[in-house]
Every structure is written in C-alpha cells, then in structure tokens.
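hey so i finally got around to running the thing on that chain from the lab meeting. sorry it took forever, my laptop kept dying and i had to restart like 3 times. anyway pasting the input first so we r on the same page abt which one it is
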Amino acid sequence: MDKRGFSCIALDNPKSDVNVGSALRAAGVYGVDLIVASGTRYKHSATDTRNQHKHTPFIRNKNVFDALPLDCVPVAVDLVESAISLPEYKHPERAFYIFGAEDATLGKRVIDKCRDVIYVPTDGCMNLAATVNVILYDRLMKQLTTL
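ok and heres what got predicted. didnt touch it at all, straight out
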C-alpha cells in the first residue's frame, strides 16, 4: 500500500490512565505518526502493552495545538450539534485528530481552531480509547477502499 499523508492524535486533558494507555496502543496498531497529550491527570498505563511512546513520537504540551504539524488539518472529535457524522466524513490526507477527556467536551477553545468537527453516531458517548479506535479504523478502511 502506498501510504500518503499521515495521521496524528491529540488527547486533550485526558482523565483515565487506562484510556490513555489504550489510545496509545491504538496509535501503534493503526500506524499513527505522532501522539500529543495535554494535561497532568494521567500517566502511562499498563494497557499500552506496545509501549508505543518508545516507537512513535509522544509530545506532552499545555496546548495540543502547539504540536500541530505544518499543513495538517485539525479535526475535533466531539458530540456537538454541528459535527459531521463519521460515515459521511472524508478524512484529510494529513490529519490531526483531537479527542477530549472522558468527563468533558472539547468546547469552543478547541473546536473554533479546527477545520472539521466529527462525531461517531452512537446512542450515547464512548470512552476516549474506544473513540480513538473507531476513528482510526474508519480512516484506514476509507484509505484502503480508495486505492
């Protein structure tokens, strides 16, 4: 497969060590190129069985946008009224997916800086790690079907 572009995930002030670890594991499984996290409520977790921080650049910043790569599209993942449903979404070639904490929304502070806002159509919200897995899987499947 001719890989074009890249993907990054940003975890905005995540709360749960278990979810952070599982999100890092998903980053490795789906070939994420950069992981960014803000906040101090978490540490690395045993659920990151791949020790992904040793294989993919992991940056901790006060503001996730401080690590936004050049010419990369910031994409907020949040259950808000104006968001695009994931099945309808065309992923950018260079994406910087921003995921919120398990106990909060991203809010205007993040959403206003994003070109796109997407959501996973579910009956209720998923946890951070589950959402990261679903978004990255959707990206992969849509890339494979456009080859």
